[in-house]
User: Fold this.
Amino acid sequence: MRKLSLLITFLLFACHSSDKKIERQQIGIVYKSDIYEVIKSFTKCNSNSSIYLTEEDYSYFREGPMNLMETIKVKADSIYTNEDFKFIEKQIASSKIFRLNADLLNCKQVISTDTLDKLHSQSENIDDFWRNLRQKFGKDISLESIGLPLFSKNKEYVIFSSTTYWGPHSMGSNTTIYKKINNKWERVRSLAGWVT
Assistant:
Protein backbone atom coordinates (compact mmCIF):
# COMPACT_ATOMS: atom_id res chain seq x y z
CA MET A 1 0.00 0.00 0.00
CA ARG A 2 2.85 2.35 0.85
CA LYS A 3 4.45 1.72 -2.57
CA LEU A 4 1.14 2.51 -4.29
CA SER A 5 0.81 5.72 -2.30
CA LEU A 6 4.38 6.76 -3.23
CA LEU A 7 3.71 5.95 -6.90
CA ILE A 8 0.52 8.05 -6.93
CA THR A 9 2.33 10.95 -5.23
CA PHE A 10 5.16 10.72 -7.78
CA LEU A 11 2.72 10.64 -10.72
CA LEU A 12 0.79 13.63 -9.40
CA PHE A 13 4.01 15.59 -8.96
CA ALA A 14 5.26 14.60 -12.43
CA CYS A 15 1.99 15.65 -14.08
CA HIS A 16 1.97 18.94 -12.18
CA SER A 17 5.59 19.65 -13.20
CA SER A 18 4.92 19.00 -16.89
CA ASP A 19 1.96 21.43 -16.80
CA LYS A 20 4.28 24.13 -15.44
CA LYS A 21 6.79 23.50 -18.26
CA ILE A 22 4.11 23.95 -20.91
CA GLU A 23 2.88 27.09 -19.19
CA ARG A 24 6.40 28.58 -19.13
CA GLN A 25 7.22 27.60 -22.71
CA GLN A 26 8.48 30.49 -24.79
CA ILE A 27 7.38 31.98 -28.10
CA GLY A 28 10.51 33.75 -29.26
CA ILE A 29 11.80 35.47 -26.11
CA VAL A 30 8.54 35.80 -24.13
CA TYR A 31 6.62 33.13 -22.22
CA LYS A 32 3.37 31.75 -23.64
CA SER A 33 1.59 32.33 -20.33
CA ASP A 34 2.35 36.07 -20.53
CA ILE A 35 1.28 36.26 -24.19
CA TYR A 36 -2.02 34.45 -23.68
CA GLU A 37 -2.84 36.41 -20.52
CA VAL A 38 -2.72 39.59 -22.65
CA ILE A 39 -4.64 38.11 -25.58
CA LYS A 40 -7.40 36.85 -23.28
CA SER A 41 -7.62 40.31 -21.71
CA PHE A 42 -8.28 42.03 -25.04
CA THR A 43 -10.29 39.52 -27.08
CA LYS A 44 -13.72 38.06 -26.63
CA CYS A 45 -14.41 34.51 -27.62
CA ASN A 46 -17.80 32.91 -27.23
CA SER A 47 -19.66 30.35 -29.27
CA ASN A 48 -22.41 32.84 -30.24
CA SER A 49 -19.96 35.29 -31.77
CA SER A 50 -19.27 35.48 -35.48
CA ILE A 51 -15.76 36.83 -34.81
CA TYR A 52 -12.99 34.38 -35.59
CA LEU A 53 -9.43 35.00 -34.44
CA THR A 54 -6.28 34.60 -36.51
CA GLU A 55 -2.68 35.74 -36.12
CA GLU A 56 -0.68 38.60 -37.67
CA ASP A 57 3.08 38.30 -38.06
CA TYR A 58 3.88 42.03 -38.38
CA SER A 59 5.36 41.54 -41.87
CA TYR A 60 3.52 44.64 -43.04
CA PHE A 61 5.09 46.60 -40.18
CA ARG A 62 8.58 45.34 -41.08
CA GLU A 63 8.37 45.51 -44.88
CA GLY A 64 5.52 47.94 -45.53
CA PRO A 65 5.39 51.73 -45.44
CA MET A 66 4.68 51.87 -41.70
CA ASN A 67 7.69 50.82 -39.65
CA LEU A 68 6.41 49.78 -36.23
CA MET A 69 9.73 50.30 -34.42
CA GLU A 70 10.04 53.85 -35.75
CA THR A 71 6.46 54.58 -34.68
CA ILE A 72 7.15 53.21 -31.19
CA LYS A 73 10.36 55.24 -30.89
CA VAL A 74 8.65 58.47 -31.97
CA LYS A 75 5.40 58.10 -30.02
CA ALA A 76 6.64 56.26 -26.93
CA ASP A 77 10.22 57.33 -26.32
CA SER A 78 9.23 58.62 -22.87
CA ILE A 79 7.85 55.18 -21.91
CA TYR A 80 10.57 52.84 -23.14
CA THR A 81 14.30 52.56 -22.48
CA ASN A 82 16.91 51.56 -25.09
CA GLU A 83 16.88 48.07 -23.53
CA ASP A 84 13.11 47.94 -24.07
CA PHE A 85 13.49 48.93 -27.73
CA LYS A 86 16.02 46.12 -28.28
CA PHE A 87 13.72 43.65 -26.50
CA ILE A 88 10.74 44.74 -28.63
CA GLU A 89 12.76 44.47 -31.86
CA LYS A 90 13.63 40.85 -30.97
CA GLN A 91 9.94 40.12 -30.37
CA ILE A 92 8.94 41.62 -33.73
CA ALA A 93 11.59 39.47 -35.43
CA SER A 94 10.17 36.35 -33.76
CA SER A 95 6.54 37.24 -34.54
CA LYS A 96 6.59 35.17 -37.75
CA ILE A 97 6.59 31.99 -35.61
CA PHE A 98 3.56 33.12 -33.61
CA ARG A 99 0.47 30.91 -34.04
CA LEU A 100 -2.67 31.21 -31.94
CA ASN A 101 -3.45 28.10 -29.93
CA ALA A 102 -7.21 27.58 -29.63
CA ASP A 103 -6.74 25.34 -26.57
CA LEU A 104 -4.80 27.99 -24.65
CA LEU A 105 -7.51 30.54 -25.46
CA ASN A 106 -10.34 28.12 -24.66
CA CYS A 107 -11.75 29.21 -28.00
CA LYS A 108 -12.91 27.11 -30.92
CA GLN A 109 -13.12 30.17 -33.14
CA VAL A 110 -9.52 30.34 -34.33
CA ILE A 111 -8.67 30.16 -38.02
CA SER A 112 -5.00 29.61 -38.81
CA THR A 113 -3.23 31.79 -41.33
CA ASP A 114 -2.53 28.58 -43.27
CA THR A 115 -6.30 28.05 -43.70
CA LEU A 116 -6.78 31.67 -44.75
CA ASP A 117 -3.84 31.48 -47.17
CA LYS A 118 -5.32 28.35 -48.73
CA LEU A 119 -8.74 30.01 -49.13
CA HIS A 120 -7.04 33.08 -50.61
CA SER A 121 -5.09 30.99 -53.14
CA GLN A 122 -8.35 29.33 -54.23
CA SER A 123 -10.02 32.71 -54.78
CA GLU A 124 -9.83 34.93 -57.84
CA ASN A 125 -10.05 38.20 -55.90
CA ILE A 126 -10.89 39.64 -52.47
CA ASP A 127 -14.67 39.47 -53.04
CA ASP A 128 -14.36 35.82 -54.05
CA PHE A 129 -12.22 35.15 -50.94
CA TRP A 130 -14.95 36.57 -48.67
CA ARG A 131 -17.62 34.53 -50.47
CA ASN A 132 -15.55 31.38 -49.88
CA LEU A 133 -14.85 32.35 -46.26
CA ARG A 134 -18.56 32.93 -45.57
CA GLN A 135 -19.53 29.64 -47.21
CA LYS A 136 -17.10 27.81 -44.95
CA PHE A 137 -17.60 29.69 -41.64
CA GLY A 138 -21.00 31.41 -41.88
CA LYS A 139 -22.49 34.46 -43.54
CA ASP A 140 -21.91 36.81 -40.58
CA ILE A 141 -18.21 36.03 -40.09
CA SER A 142 -15.68 38.71 -39.32
CA LEU A 143 -11.99 38.18 -38.63
CA GLU A 144 -9.87 39.65 -35.86
CA SER A 145 -6.18 39.39 -36.61
CA ILE A 146 -4.06 39.47 -33.44
CA GLY A 147 -0.44 40.55 -33.42
CA LEU A 148 2.02 38.99 -31.01
CA PRO A 149 1.81 41.16 -27.86
CA LEU A 150 5.09 43.11 -27.55
CA PHE A 151 6.36 43.49 -23.99
CA SER A 152 8.77 45.91 -22.36
CA LYS A 153 11.70 44.09 -20.81
CA ASN A 154 10.18 44.25 -17.30
CA LYS A 155 6.72 43.26 -18.68
CA GLU A 156 5.17 46.40 -17.17
CA TYR A 157 4.05 47.61 -20.62
CA VAL A 158 2.65 45.77 -23.61
CA ILE A 159 1.83 46.81 -27.16
CA PHE A 160 -1.31 45.10 -28.42
CA SER A 161 -2.27 45.24 -32.07
CA SER A 162 -5.41 43.91 -33.72
CA THR A 163 -7.15 44.37 -37.04
CA THR A 164 -10.82 43.52 -37.53
CA TYR A 165 -12.13 42.65 -40.99
CA TRP A 166 -15.91 42.84 -41.45
CA GLY A 167 -15.84 42.23 -45.19
CA PRO A 168 -13.79 42.69 -48.34
CA HIS A 169 -13.76 46.49 -48.13
CA SER A 170 -14.44 47.14 -44.44
CA MET A 171 -11.78 46.91 -41.74
CA GLY A 172 -10.22 48.71 -38.81
CA SER A 173 -6.98 48.44 -36.89
CA ASN A 174 -5.63 49.60 -33.57
CA THR A 175 -2.15 49.43 -32.02
CA THR A 176 -2.09 50.55 -28.40
CA ILE A 177 0.31 50.61 -25.45
CA TYR A 178 -1.06 49.30 -22.14
CA LYS A 179 0.44 49.37 -18.66
CA LYS A 180 -0.24 46.77 -15.99
CA ILE A 181 -1.78 48.50 -12.97
CA ASN A 182 -3.19 46.41 -10.10
CA ASN A 183 -3.03 43.25 -12.27
CA LYS A 184 -5.12 44.88 -14.99
CA TRP A 185 -3.99 46.25 -18.36
CA GLU A 186 -4.79 49.98 -18.62
CA ARG A 187 -4.61 51.95 -21.88
CA VAL A 188 -1.68 54.40 -21.94
CA ARG A 189 -1.31 55.59 -25.53
CA SER A 190 -2.52 54.80 -29.03
CA LEU A 191 0.27 54.26 -31.55
CA ALA A 192 -1.90 53.83 -34.63
CA GLY A 193 -5.50 53.33 -35.58
CA TRP A 194 -7.63 53.48 -38.69
CA VAL A 195 -11.00 52.36 -40.15
CA THR A 196 -12.06 51.94 -43.77
Remarks:
- The mean pLDDT is 78.
- The CA atoms of residues 1 and 173 lie 61 Å apart.
- The longest helix spans residues 2-23.
- Helices lie at 2-23, 32-42, 59-63, 68-75, 82-94, 102-105, 113-121, 126-137.
